[in-house]
């Protein structure tokens, strides 16, 4: 096992294989990633970011090497044969917490450069779905185990919503995927109406406490488009200021926190920053923020809010609606 694992890591570090998918993210921001080129009696010929793959018409044992893929497979009613570990789990070798209860006894095979190639082979997959640049560097090796389809980085905004369509095409559940996506979009439309009545134009912010700092996120990355564009919430002025000065995120000092006018705060706390967060919430500055005074500072599950796929995004919407009802 050790020899196979070391070989896989060496292959990744060597730089051989396809380039990181993120290089092309902006170029295809509004495009689907998967094209079905042909269907034979045994296979579906799939064009993806690393080439073309002959996928079984009805794959039975799918290994998922990205959390957003696992999320969408579960939404489609498909139990993976093995899954990657999540950096958001807080524990090495664990699946994302918001999906863990849906994955009883499913093996976890590592992630990125810690993938256990032999464990993937032992899962006896007839299809591997991968979704990161590091998986891309291992694409050739994964393809020798089973047909492998590679998706671009899961951090792109369109992929959070439309990846389920591509995954549905690959596994032969296109109609189910389209129905799930339409239901999800209907949930967004309904939530937006409710939030317009309950939250209105009151400012909102998402904060992450990590590495003994407080990070503010803008409208651009990951969570921002869902909160501020799709759900129609109003960003705190510090959000727009950060967007102008720093791009996707910036670190806020305790003094800068005093400038927040947010009536709703959603915040995640990394394990390494629990003590720092506790010191912040005990400070007089924190207690002056409107959201704190009105009991609208809500701690959220980082594995959900930094997750991908319709299950994670739907859970974010549930969190926002629950806060709006308080």
Task: Give the secondary structure arrangement, pairings included.
Layout: H1 2-14, E1 35-39, E2 43-48, E3 51-56, E4 62-65, H2 67-75, E5 82-83, H3 97-100, H4 117-122, E6 127-130, H5 133-137, H6 139-143, E7 148-150, H7 157-171, H8 174-198, E8 203-210, E9 213-217, H9 223-230, E10 234-235, H10 237-246, E11 249-252, H11 254-257, E12 264-269, H12 274-281, H13 284-287, H14 290-293, E13 297-299, H15 302-305, H16 309-325
Parallel strand pairs: 4-5, 4-6, 6-7, 8-10, 8-12, 12-13
Antiparallel strand pairs: 1-2, 2-3, 8-9, 9-11
Helix pairs in contact: 2-7, 2-16, 7-8, 8-16
Explain the overall architecture:
It is a single chain. The chain is an alpha/beta fold and 326 residues long. It folds into two domains: 2-172, 3-Layer(aba) Sandwich (Rossmann fold), CATH 3.40.50; 183-325, Nitrogenase molybdenum iron protein domain (Rossmann fold). The chain has 16 helices and 13 strands. It has helices at 2-14, 67-75, 97-100, 117-122, 133-137, 139-143, 157-171, 174-198, 223-230, 237-246, 254-257, 274-281, 284-287, 290-293, 302-305, 309-325, and strands at 35-39, 43-48, 51-56, 62-65, 82-83, 127-130, 148-150, 203-210, 213-217, 234-235, 249-252, 264-269, 297-299. Strands 8, 9, 10, 11, 12 and 13 form a six-stranded mixed sheet that branches. Strands 5-4-6-7 form a four-stranded parallel sheet. A three-stranded antiparallel sheet has the order 1-2-3, with helices on one face.
């Amino acid at each position: 096992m050790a020899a196979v694992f070391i070989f896989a890591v060496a292959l990744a570090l060597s730089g051989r294989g396809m380039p990181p998918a993120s290089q092309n993210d902006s170029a295809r921001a509004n495009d689907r990633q998967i094209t079905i080129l042909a269907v034979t009696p045994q296979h579906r010929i799939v064009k993806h970011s690393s080439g073309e793959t002959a996928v079984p018409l009805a794959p039975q044992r799918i290994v998922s090497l990205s959390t957003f893929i696992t999320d969408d497979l579960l939404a489609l009613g498909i139990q993976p044969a093995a899954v990657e570990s999540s950096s958001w789990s807080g524990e090495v070798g664990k699946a994302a917490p918001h999906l863990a209860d849906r994955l009883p006894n499913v093996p976890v095979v590592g992630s990125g450069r810690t993938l256990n190639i032999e464990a993937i082979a032992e899962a006896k997959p007839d299809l591997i779905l991968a979704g990161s640049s590091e998986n891309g560097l291992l694409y050739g090796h994964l393809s020798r185990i089973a047909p492998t389809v590679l998706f671009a980085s899961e951090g792109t905004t369109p992929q959070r919503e439309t990846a389920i369509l591509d995954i549905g095409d690959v596994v032969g559940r296109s109609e189910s995927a389209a129905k799930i996506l339409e239901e999800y979009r209907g949930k967004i439309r309904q939530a937006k109406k409710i939030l317009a009545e309950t939250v209105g134009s009151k400012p909102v912010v998402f904060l992450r406490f990590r590495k003994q700092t407080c990070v503010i996120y803008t409208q651009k990355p990951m969570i921002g488009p869902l909160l501020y564009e799709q759900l129609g919430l109003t960003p705190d002025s510090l959000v727009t200021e950060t967007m102008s000065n720093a791009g996707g995120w910036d670190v806020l000092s305790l003094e800068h926190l005093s400038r927040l006018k947010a009536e709703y705060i959603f915040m995640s706390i990394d394990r390494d920053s629990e003590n720092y967060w506790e010191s912040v919430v005990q400070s007089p500055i924190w207690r002056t923020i409107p959201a704190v005074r009105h009991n609208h500072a809500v701690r959220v599950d980082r594995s959900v809010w930094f997750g991908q796929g319709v299950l994670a995004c739907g859970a974010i919407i549930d969190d926002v609606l629950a806060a709006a009802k308080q």
